[in-house]
């Protein structure tokens, strides 16, 4: 874990957008939230101490505690502020036509581009009641966007409206993972175009959410694989830090200590699960490249394979999105390098299909596809709908400007 001195020295007051001062500005609470938002999104809640945040604001820890009783309370304030700032415009009674709404939403999403990371990864550290309260705010914004889409498209069925509104929010969430500069006016205009493209997409039919039938689940014969499957599900649903080895062992009917016959540590279980997901994606990519006739076909097939994998393995998708901060340093570096290398393969294909497309735009489009697919896969109400894979494939191809085949 990084010490307060290390984090403050690396990030510093300037990186957090906060002046180093010994005065008592009236907006100190806002300055604290700004610094915490940047530190939490960049390094992860678990790796940031209150002393790091105090140093970034230029105050002592005691002054920080006059505003927030602890780090968890500060995290709640940070996530709530990001949600409200980004999504408030969706509730406006006179939001105007869809193109106006998407332009305004794109601007606010860029202003709070950390929201995707804060909500998907860091909000899991909040108590269940606080997390549920913030989730209700997000769902209210999604319902408001449903209403906007339906008003502009009277024939739009509720299932498509829900998918398109979640996917539009997914484009906003993807901005947190964009490591490119998106200066005005080109950046907001690009994001607005992508949001508008998703919101107005013409998709194949999807069915009602499936309720899994009650049946006995088939189990692995291998005890090691059974443990890995149980741990993957528990880590994804409750968070790595909240799951003990004893609970993992109990899920497959063995004592916690017996796990050491199969894995050296809980860290090794997490690393093995993440590695399993990584290898599956690389194998899929190799098969796509070996079988496709040209770059466009390869990219269309890659969107399809990624979509199918995400829908079938939503717990693994969740681990990659939310739990890699708990990997040991070497495994975390390897995982981050994989993510960069894997997306580079998408960018190479997209560059061959659209050679005139700017590199920054290509990166924004690819990350939007991955984020939208991941978000839907992790939302059972959407991910279990019959036909959802075809609908997501169409959305992905639209975002990448690929003509239907």
TrEMBL record:
Q: Which SUPFAM superfamilies match?
A: Homeodomain-like
Chain spans, region Disordered: 1-20
Domain (HTH tetR-type): give its ranges: 26-86, 221-281
In its UniProt record, a GO molecular function of this protein is: DNA-binding transcription factor activity
Tell me which InterPro entries the record gives. Answer: Homeodomain-like_sf, HTH-type_TetR-like_transc_reg, HTH_TetR
Keywords, A to Z, come to: DNA-binding, Transcription, Transcription regulation
The record's DNA-binding region positions are: 49-68, 244-263
Report what the protein is called: TetR/AcrR family transcriptional regulator
């Amino acid at each position: 874990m990084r010490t307060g001195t290390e984090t403050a020295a690396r990030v510093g007051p300037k990186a957090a957008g906060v002046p180093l001062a010994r005065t008592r500005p009236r907006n100190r609470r806002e300055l604290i939230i700004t610094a915490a938002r940047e530190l939490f999104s960049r390094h992860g809640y678990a790796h940031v101490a209150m002393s790091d945040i105090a140093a970034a604001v230029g105050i002592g820890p005691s002054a920080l505690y006059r505003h927030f009783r602890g780090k968890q309370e500060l995290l709640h304030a940070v996530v709530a502020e990001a949600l409200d700032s980004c999504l408030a415009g969706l509730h406006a009674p006179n939001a105007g036509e869809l193109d106006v709404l998407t332009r305004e939403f794109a601007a606010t999403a860029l202003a709070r581009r950390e929201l995707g990371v804060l909500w998907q990864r860091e909000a899991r550290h909040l108590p269940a009641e606080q997390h549920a309260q913030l989730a209700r705010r997000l769902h209210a914004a999604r319902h408001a966007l449903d209403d906007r889409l339906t008003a502009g498209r009277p024939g739009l069925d509720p299932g498509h409206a829900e998918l398109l509104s979640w996917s539009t929010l997914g484009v906003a969430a993807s901005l947190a993972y964009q490591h490119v500069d998106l200066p005005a006016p080109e950046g907001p205009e690009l994001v607005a175009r992508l949001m508008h493209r998703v919101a107005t997409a013409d998709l194949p039919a999807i069915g009602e959410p499936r309720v899994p039938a009650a049946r006995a689940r088939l189990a692995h014969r291998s005890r090691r694989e059974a443990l890995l499957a149980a741990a993957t599900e528990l880590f994804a649903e409750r968070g790595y830090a909240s799951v003990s080895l004893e609970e993992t062992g109990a899920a497959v009917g063995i004592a916690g200590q017996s796990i050491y016959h199969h894995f050296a540590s809980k860290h090794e279980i997490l690393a093995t699960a993440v590695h399993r997901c990584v290898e599956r994606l690389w194998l899929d990519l190799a098969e796509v490249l070996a079988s496709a006739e040209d770059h466009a076909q390869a990219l269309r097939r890659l969107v399809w394979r990624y979509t199918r994998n995400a829908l079938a393995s939503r717990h693994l998708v969740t681990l990659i999105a939310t739990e890699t901060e708990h990997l040991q340093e070497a495994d975390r570096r390897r995982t981050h390098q994989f993510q960069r290398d894997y997306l580079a393969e998408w960018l190479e294909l997209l560059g061959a299909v659209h050679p005139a497309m700017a590199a920054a735009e290509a990166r924004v489009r690819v990350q939007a596809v991955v984020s939208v697919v991941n978000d839907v896969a992790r939302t059972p109400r959407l991910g279990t709908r019959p036909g959802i894979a075809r609908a997501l494939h169409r959305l992905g191809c639209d975002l990448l400007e690929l003509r239907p085949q």
